[in-house]
């Protein structure tokens, strides 16, 4: 199906609304109902919108008459012909302000900071307690390997997400629509189960941790601190525009970098560079699950894809840079903790375990304690924002509720209230569950599932041919590696936990 809309400013309605399909826009109400509709400037415009596979012969005729249409399937806006102006639009669709009808493209910088803020969690400060046995050199190699794996996983999510938007003709599609389109009902069940469990468990942990920090700082009851944290950031996610959320999140990330820089400055005194060369490769496999968990961000990739209007080069840049910031932070912090004291290794070369990697820094300087609390609160806040956006978008797609300017409050209520109440009643249950099943859920959801969806989309023939070229090279070999590597880690961890 294809649609051509000819509209004057007086005929324009809302842009970006969900509907069951597109047709020829003959009235103001029809234009208002379109998912991807008209973006006009003064003087009017002609917009061509396409859904599903185009007619090749008709496309040639349109090209010869001045319309530059997409060459593959999907709903895509390629050329906007304004009276007196001819300009190519590279993006898939346009995000418009529904009041002013002005184009409001998502910011690449905000997308980078959203991914970085979601990835960086307060747990980064305690990761050296897991990597100390393998040493800095070996754990750094493992960290870079896990980073490459998780970058590839996120790019696979972006590839399938953009192709799903093209095929369905709808922005804001989440893992539900992606799994249903590529893997069918069983894929939806697996995706929903793992996604909901991981997100609710982590949101419970974030709220519980933030309320502890706020209560220790100002003395308010725990439930009041939790309500303030949940209400303020949850309200930001619901009421705030992309620009406002991006500015707030960017400010929090700047605060994270500042407090982290102070911790590194204090901790780097007495750094022993020779100790950084120690490597125990046999201990590396035990640290991989924890390191991989530190690079979870894929839940916000659909949000970023919609914000950046399906522009895959921008999405790829956001993923690489957004995860590159946490990678650098981890490597620096790992070096500071594992290289600040030669007493980490005794005379026989045996590693002396540190139950709390911050204990030495706390005893060295009185400023470390407050700085750690500030860093932790900011890191929890940025991760909380990313997970709220990801889960609410998931629930919106699951229940087929409207997004955009007329978003329904129900997904946000379901996102915020259950973890709030659970964090005040029995958060230890979720900590235990997350400790046991978090590794398996994350590797299934963000390791096996993206590769399986990409495999089905590219090679199974169960859905329309992809509208974009693969952005993760290597074909079947690469996808098989993603599935096999996640399966190997899951199996190894299961054997380790079950063995006496």
UniProtKB/TrEMBL annotation:
Coiled coil: none annotated. Pfam families: Trp_Tyr_perm. It is found in: Cell inner membrane. GO terms for biological process: amino acid transmembrane transport. The keyword Transmembrane helix applies. Keywords: Amino-acid transport, Cell inner membrane, Cell membrane, Membrane, Transmembrane, Transmembrane helix, Transport. PANTHER family: OS07G0662800 PROTEIN (PTHR32195), TRYPTOPHAN OR TYROSINE TRANSPORTER PROTEIN (PTHR32195:SF26). This is Tyrosine-specific transport protein. The chain crosses the membrane at residues 108-130, 136-158, 186-208, 220-239, 251-271, 283-305, 317-338, 374-396, 437-456, 477-495. The keyword Lipid metabolism does not apply. GO terms for molecular function: aromatic amino acid transmembrane transporter activity. InterPro entries: Amino_acid_transport_2, Trp_tyr_transpt. It is a multi-pass membrane protein. GO terms for cellular component: plasma membrane.
């Amino acid at each position: 199906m294809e649609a051509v809309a000819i509209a004057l400013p007086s005929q324009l309605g809302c842009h970006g609304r969900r509907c069951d399909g597109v047709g020829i826009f003959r009235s103001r109400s029809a234009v208002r109902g379109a998912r991807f509709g008209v973006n006009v400037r003064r003087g009017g415009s002609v917009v061509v919108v396409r859904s599903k596979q185009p007619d090749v012969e008709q496309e040639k005729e349109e090209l010869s008459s001045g319309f530059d249409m997409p060459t593959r399937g999907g709903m895509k806006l390629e050329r906007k012909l304004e009276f007196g102006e001819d300009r190519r639009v590279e993006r898939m669709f346009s995000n418009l302000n529904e009041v002013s009808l002005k184009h409001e493209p998502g910011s690449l910088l905000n997308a980078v900071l959203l991914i970085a803020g979601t990835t960086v969690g307060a747990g980064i400060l305690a990761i050296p307690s897991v990597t100390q046995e393998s040493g800095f050199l070996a754990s750094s190699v493992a960290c870079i390997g896990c980073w490459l794996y998780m970058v590839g996983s996120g790019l696979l999510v972006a590839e399938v997400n953009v192709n799903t938007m093209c095929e369905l003709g709808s922005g804001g599609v989440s893992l539900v629509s992606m799994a249903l389109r590529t893997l069918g009902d069983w894929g939806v069940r697996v995706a929903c189960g793992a996604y909901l469990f991981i997100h609710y468990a982590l949101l419970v942990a974030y709220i519980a941790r933030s309320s502890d920090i706020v209560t220790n700082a100002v003395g308010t009851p725990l439930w009041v601190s939790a309500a303030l944290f949940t209400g303020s950031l949850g309200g930001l996610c619901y009421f705030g525009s992309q620009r406002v959320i991006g500015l707030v999140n960017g400010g929090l990330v700047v605060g994270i970098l500042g407090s982290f820089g102070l911790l590194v400055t204090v901790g780097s005194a007495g750094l022993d560079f020779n100790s950084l060369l120690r490597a125990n490769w046999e201990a590396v496999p035990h640290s991989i699950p924890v390191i991989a968990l530190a690079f979870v961000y894929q839940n916000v990739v659909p949000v970023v894809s919609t914000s950046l209007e399906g522009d895959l080069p921008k999405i790829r840049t956001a993923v690489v840079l957004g995860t590159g910031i946490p990678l650098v932070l981890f490597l620096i912090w790992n070096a500071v903790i594992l290289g600040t004291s030669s007493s980490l290794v005794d005379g026989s070369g045996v590693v002396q375990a540190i139950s709390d990697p911050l204990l030495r820094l706390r005893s060295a300087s009185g400023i470390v304690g407050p700085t750690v609390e500030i860093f932790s609160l900011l890191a929890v806040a940025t991760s909380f924002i990313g997970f709220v956006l990801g889960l609410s978008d998931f629930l919106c797609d699951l229940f087929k509720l409207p997004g955009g300017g007329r978003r329904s409050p129900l997904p946000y209520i379901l996102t915020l209230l259950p973890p709030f109440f659970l964090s005040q009643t029995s958060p230890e249950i979720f900590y235990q569950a997350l400790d046991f099943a978090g590794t398996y859920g994350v590797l299934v959801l963000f390791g096996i599932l993206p590769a399986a969806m990409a495999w089905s989309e590219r090679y199974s023939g169960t859905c329309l041919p992809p509208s974009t070229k693969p952005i993760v090279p290597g074909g079947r070999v690469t996808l098989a590696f993603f599935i096999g590597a996640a399966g190997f880690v899951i199996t190894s961890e299961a054997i380790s936990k079950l063995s006496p």
